[in-house]
Amino acid sequence: MAYRHAAVRFSFTYRRLHIGFTCLLFILGLTFVSQGAYMQAKAYFAQFLIQQAWQKTLDDQQQHKPWSWADTYPVAKLEFIASNSEVTATPIQRENASVTKNRSLYVLSGASGRNLAFGPAQVLSSAKINSRGNTVIAGHRDTHFSLLSGTQIGQLITLQNAEGIEVLYQVMQTQVVHESDVSVMDNVGETKLTLVTCYPFDSAVAGGPLRYVVTAVPFDKVEAL
Fold first, then answer.
1. Strand 121-122 and strand 134-138: pairing?
2. Whole-number Å distance between alpha carbons of 211 and 201
3. Are 187 and 201 a contacting pair, CB within 8 Å?
4. CA–CA separation, 160 vs 66, rounded Å?
């Protein structure tokens, strides 16, 4: 009889622990989902404020913070050209465009972790926007630079500087490298645009040692090749 009571108590306790553990997992899941949604919302709402600051920069060629406590400012407008755009003049370019409508992103100065939470950011040691050398822009794979996952050779990208001058680039190479391979950021040679994000895109864990790198060159240089 005592054995039966003990077994019943054990079964009841086990069920309570199982239910409690399940509820805990559910709450933790909601927490992570909420945090993810918050990060997504913050990332895209910040772009709206950065866009306003960028417009002011275009108007007076001065640096404007997107919000009063920001320690950065926008330095460029990056636009991925859609497959149905008139700019994608050839069938190959239309086929390889990774977006169905033009997608604009506003680039901040300084690729710090804090800045990357709000938008793609230029690596300060890289070439000035649309200048001779290698302009390197980094972004998070799960927010602003998630669209790089579909980028193919031939994709067209425009990059606008603070003077309002736009340069049309065409993607020439995509590759996965180890984070220790910093040669992709070498600031040498002709004008080039390098976009960098973490890899793989669908990883459940942030960070990791791999980087996805997109290399593009001015479109007029492509035609000359």
1. antiparallel
2. 10
3. no
4. 18
pLDDT band at 38 (very low <50, low <70, confident <90, very high): low
Give the residue carrying structure tokens 């309570």.
16
* pLDDT classification of 199: cutoffs 50, 70, 90: very high
Q: How many helices (H) and strands (E) does the chain have?
A: 4, 8
For β-strands 166-178 and 210-218, DSSP reports them as antiparallel
Model pLDDT for residues 70-121, shown as the tens digit of each residue: 999 999 999 999 876 655 555 555 555 555 568 999 999 999 999 999 999 9
Q: Are 176 and 211 in contact (CB under 8 A)?
A: yes
Name the CATH architecture for the domain at 33-224: Beta Barrel (2.40)
How far is 180 from 210, CA to CA, in rounded Å?
9
| β partners of residue 175 | 213
Tokens of 131: 């200048």
Whether the CB-CB separation of 223 and 173 falls below 8 Å is answered with no
Sign of the torsion angle spanned by Cα atoms 75, 221, 133, 139: positive
Residue with tokens 């997504």: 40
Short-list 152, 140, 143, CA closest to 199: 140
Residue 178 near residue 119 (C-beta atoms within 8 A): no
User: Beta-strand (E) ranges in 97-223?
Assistant: 103-109, 121-122, 134-138, 156-160, 166-178, 192-199, 210-218
Domain ranges of the chain: 33-224
| DSSP three-state, residue 133 | coil
CA atoms within 13 A on the CB side of 114: 7
